[in-house]
Amino acid sequence: MEPDLQGFEDTQKMFWDVIYKTDWTEWWLVSVQTFHVLMFCLVVISHRANWNLISAITFLFLLTLMYFAQTLNTIAAQNYDQFTNEQYFDSDGLFITLVLLLPCALNCILFIFSWLLQSWTLMVDLKTQQAKRYVASQKKDK
What we know:
mainly alpha; 5 helices; 80% helix; elongated
């Protein structure tokens, strides 16, 4: 028996329709894109510079933004005529998911990977120093 892929194909078609039919040159969409680029740069810089507090605050900000996405979608759907000519904000939230949530989620995943890498590096350094101290204490005892 073949699996029913009609729902998946419909979703995939809706996804590509949103991508191709969106005017990505509108000022507010350029602003959202710029926001995501800046957030990505902040992820990279905070990882390299070891800015843990800034990473945590940015991570929580992105999670809060994702939490309130449905509310933002409702507000934007009611007031879209004030900042755009097209009604992008549907009740399913596909547009806001693609434009806002997906990049925020990817940045959050990058933060988590960064923290895991930092934790792993810290554990390796700790165990290396413990091994060196153990070897030094063994030499001292002999």
